[in-house]
């Protein structure tokens, strides 16, 4: 399969590493693109492929089977739709969209195309999450009654000042909710396995008022259609980075995923799973080491023409919900998801 990549910045290294790890199969990286010529040239040189400065020219010349999109948030829908129009499969970095209209456009484009979409919610492939998902679905501890999630990370001026798109409503399209904590948000909903009825939330900027337009902190209250509920707190204003926590309360015990560890809590916390670190880890610790697993699984689905489970529709759920938090924070209202998504 011919692979291309657009956006040769930080996260592209995880994708290029995965492509190189999977090269032994039938995988060939033929080209990369970036609007900053030096970045495209450097990535092309390091990976022995052609460089483009215009991704449309790359798609039209190279006619790849799969393109990886690793650009800033505001470009994701536009680029994925261009690829899908050409029936090219897409590995799309999160978030898969930044507005309700964009999400609809992407979902429709995937439905109409012969190409598939894989959105990088790679943490669903973490061994701890796979273990917790199987345990919760087995109903060993009974039905899910409620959930909570907590993300406390530190992002300072240097992080936001490193790239122009960060910290802006126009290009990052949000702060901690849409960029960092979206993974934990997605994992909570994935492990919980329920349908969201309403979302109410509040966003604030505690720490970086002079540096960013967007929120560094959010608190959210979800209700589900079965009457149960979840709470979620996320911040980039903490003094240090801690492992995110997703806790699912079942009838007979609580299952807590804290980074790479899974705890069972009934009378006291007991470690029931601990994930070993893996050898192909590239990039920051918070990114985890599961990009390769997701990409390998997606390539298998493309080869076999089988559906991939984190497609545009599935990955849109967390984005619709965080857009509902922004709306709720602005209006002071509770957002009913079935009205918000239609
Ligand atoms: N899944 C994860 O855990 C994870 C981790 C980090 C980043 N990300 C996501 O990856 C994406 C990129 O983040 P990053 O940290 O690598 O950003 P970055 O700024 O380091 O890299 C983005 C690259 O895109 C290029 N670019 C911008 N506009 C372009 C265009 N029109 N055509 C071609 N190239 C263009 C930039 O020049 C830059 O090289 C974001 O969506 C981010 O949320 C995901």
Number of domains: 2
Determine the strand fraction and express it as a percent band: 15-25%
Q: What general outline do the C-alpha atoms trace?
A: globular
Spell out the CATH superfamily of the largest domain.
Dihydrodipicolinate Reductase, domain 2
The appropriate CATH architecture of the largest domain is: 2-Layer Sandwich
> What is the CATH topology classification name of the largest domain?
Dihydrodipicolinate Reductase, domain 2
Question: Low-confidence parts, pLDDT < 50 over ≥5 residues?
Answer: none
- Give me the count of strands: 15
Mean pLDDT: 96
Task: Tell me the span between the first and last alpha carbons.
Answer: 37 Å
Oligomeric state of the chains?
single chain
N to C succession of SSEs? EHEHEHEHEHEHEHHEEEEEEEHHEH
Structural class: alpha/beta
Percentage of residues in helical conformation? 25-40%
Bound ligands, named by name, code or SMILES: nicotinamide-adenine-dinucleotide
Using only C-alpha atoms, the radius of gyration works out to: 20 Å
What is the CATH top level name of the largest domain? Answer: Alpha Beta
- Which sheet architecture does the biggest sheet show? 9 strands, mixed
In DSSP terms (H or I, runs of 4 or more residues), the helix count works out at 11
């Amino acid at each position: 399969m011919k692979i291309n990549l657009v956006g040769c910045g930080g996260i592209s290294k995880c994708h290029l590493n995965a492509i190189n790890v999977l090269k032994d199969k039938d995988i060939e990286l033929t080209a990369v693109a970036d609007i900053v010529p030096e970045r495209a040239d450097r990535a092309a040189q390091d990976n022995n492929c052609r460089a483009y400065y215009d991704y449309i020219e790359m798609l039209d010349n190279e006619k790849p089977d799969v393109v990886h999109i690793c650009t800033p948030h505001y470009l994701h829908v536009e680029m994925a739709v261009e690829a899908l129009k050409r029936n090219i499969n897409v590995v799309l970095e999160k978030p898969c969209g930044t507005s309700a209209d964009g999400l609809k456009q992407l979902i429709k484009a995937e439905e109409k195309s012969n190409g598939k979409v894989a959105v990088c919610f790679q943490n669903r492939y973490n061994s701890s999450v796979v273990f917790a998902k199987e345990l919760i679905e087995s109903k060993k501890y009974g039905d899910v009654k409620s959930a909570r999630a907590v993300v406390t990370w530190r992002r300072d001026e240097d992080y936001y000042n490193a790239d122009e798109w960060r910290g802006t409503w126009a290009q990052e399209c949000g702060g901690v909710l849409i960029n960092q904590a979206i993974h934990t948000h997605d994992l909570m909903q994935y492990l919980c396995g329920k349908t969201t009825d309403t979302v109410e939330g509040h966003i604030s900027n505690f720490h970086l008022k002079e540096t960013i337009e967007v929120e560094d902190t959010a608190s959210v209250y979800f209700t589900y259609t079965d009457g149960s509920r979840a709470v979620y707190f996320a911040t980039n204003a903490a003094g240090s980075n801690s492992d995110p926590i997703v806790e699912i309360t079942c009838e007979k015990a609580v299952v807590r995923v804290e980074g790479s560890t899974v705890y069972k809590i009934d009378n006291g916390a007991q470690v029931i799973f601990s994930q070993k670190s893996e050898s192909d880890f590239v990039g920051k610790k918070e990114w985890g080491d599961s990009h390769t697993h997701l990409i390998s699984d997606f390539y298998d689905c493309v080869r076999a023409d089988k559906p991939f489970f984190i497609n545009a529709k599935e990955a849109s759920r967390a984005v619709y919900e965080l857009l509902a938090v922004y709306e709720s924070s602005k209006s002071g209202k509770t957002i009913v998801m079935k009205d918000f998504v239609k």
